[in-house]
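From the pipeline queue, job 12 of 40. The input is one protein chain; the requested action is below.

Action: predict structure.
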Amino acid sequence: MHDIITITINPAVDIFVNVAKVEPTTKMRCSAPKRDPGGGGINVARVVSRLGGDVTAIYPVGGSIGKLLQKLLDREGIDSLVTPSHVETRENFTAYETGSGEQYRFVLPGSALHRAEWESCLDKLATINATPRFVVSSGSIPPGVPHDFFARVTREAKRLGAQSVVDTSGDALKAALNEHIDIIKPNVAELSAFAGTVLDDDEARVAACRNLIAGGHVKMVALTLGADGALLVTREQALKAAPLKIDVVSAVGAGDSFLGGLVWGLSAGQSPEDAFRVAVAAGSAAVMSPGTELCSQADVSRLTSRVEIAEIAAG
């Protein structure tokens, strides 16, 4: 049984170190590196697994870093369906400056995939022998992969009878929205870019979400607002979650943790409001954890009851 399938076409191994001060030219002595599996859909899978959900991750791997990526996911008990790639899986690098508390993130683009390589990921999804509840495609698209890759994933999810969830931006999001997605999770900057205008208040943000819903492009929009909380908008309801008062340690993986919590809650049969509450708790828990650790189940459970949600607009 596969309750949730995630697809990550541009996976990575995330490296995290502490350093006293980031400065040019000087040799900066770092702490021993910590390595975690990364990439949008892989992070979602990690969160779903930590919350007790059944999840399978589909992704391409190449070279020694690709082998390490799969090994790291195996350690977390996550089922993988991997496809071979002729290029080395990418790495990302995050340095935490202990003197200032600032975080520096270096994100690599990933090498170009051949057509057969990205098509193999779609083939893996097509051969799933059970009907998943959700298919989540998340993250960036590397060179060589068409911008409508997530649109193709969405079509395959429909064929399987699963709900489609997409978390990406730009042309990839635009193409996917033509396939009538069930759920999208942009941040406010991504939605503003898509709408072609600055969405600087909740009224404008809800209106932008409702325009997508009214056009038949999506059924639910989960919009993250950073320090301003989050919105969950459907045709009938618009909910806002107030931000939790927490100590922020790392900004890495907050959006992926949010989406993992939301999809886990919905797959477990929770109402959209209750799943939204878990999502906000998971996103908040992620920023409390150092580096690329994402959220812990204990923190999510503890924070969920603290999430305050209010309806801000009628249907």
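Job complete. The chain has a mean pLDDT of 94.
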